[in-house]
Amino acid sequence: MARYSASFQNQTCAGTADTTSLTPLKYMALQGGTGTMQLKVNEVQSGGEASSSSIITYAFGRSSTVGTATLSLSGAYNALMDATSTAPGNVAAAYNTTTGTEPQRSATLGHLITHSYNAFGGLARWQARQGEEITIYGASATAGECTYSGNTGCQTGPISGHIIYELV
After folding, report:
1. CA 51, 73, 11: angle at the middle one, nearest 5?
2. CA distance 49 to 32
3. What is the pLDDT of residues 33-46, one digit of tens each?
4. d(CA 160, CA 13)
5. Which class for 49: exposed (0-12), middle (13-18), buried (19 or more C-beta within 10 A)?
6. Which contiguous run of DSSP H or E holds residue 32?
7. Which residues pair with 162 in a beta bridge?
8. Could you tell me which residues are beta bridge partners of residue 41?
9. Residue-wise pLDDT tens digits, 110-140
10. Under a CB-based contact definition with an 8 Å cutoff, are residues 73 and 5 in contact?
11. Would you list the DSSP string of 69-121?
12. Coil/strand/helix, residue 58
């Protein structure tokens, strides 16, 4: 079992309604690398970096439309946490932009976690107890992908954060 940290820096919040395509570079998505891959999300965290007060509202939720074509990271990272681990043959896709369809948060299965905090130095963190992790299975909607993105009502303000997950 390999643990990864998918992290992003200086991301501007884009308030996006459910079932609307997410804006490239303004979300972090996790998708299974194969049709039978399982991921367990252990932690979701973000913190504000704005120079004045504003509201950040981010949702971690399942996708009704998953990202397609080439999935890539820009200004973000997906790294093994244990330096002695060897990456498996198939790895999960952590991405924030695509060359095809951008993901959409599900309206019915969408909000597994919602973080709301002050962009001027606020911090939000969710950490699962053992056995209560959020699971992602496969690579298709609705169980095969989750996104962490701005929800409606989110004001502008840069944030940074990470999603810690395990490839089972």
Report:
1. 10
2. 30
3. 999 999 999 999 99
4. 10
5. middle
6. none
7. 7, 45
8. 134, 165
9. 799 999 999 999 999 999 999 999 999 999 9
10. no
11. SSEE-SSEEEEESSTT----SS--EEESEESSPPPEE-SSS--SEEEEEETTT
12. strand
Under DSSP, the state recorded for 151 is B
Prior bond to 16 cis, omega within 30? no
Distance CA 80, CA 52 (A): 34
Token digits of residue 93: 């896709």
Q: How many Å apart are CA 117 and CA 87, to the nearest integer? A: 35
List pLDDT tens digits, range 58-102.
Answer: 999 999 999 999 999 998 999 999 989 887 888 999 999 999 999
What's the rounded Cα separation, in Å, for the pair 31 and 141? 10
Answer whether 145's CB lies under 8 Å from 63's CB: yes
How many CA atoms, within 13 angstroms, populate the side-chain half-sphere of residue 65? 13
Q: Are 125 and 11 in contact (CB under 8 A)?
A: no
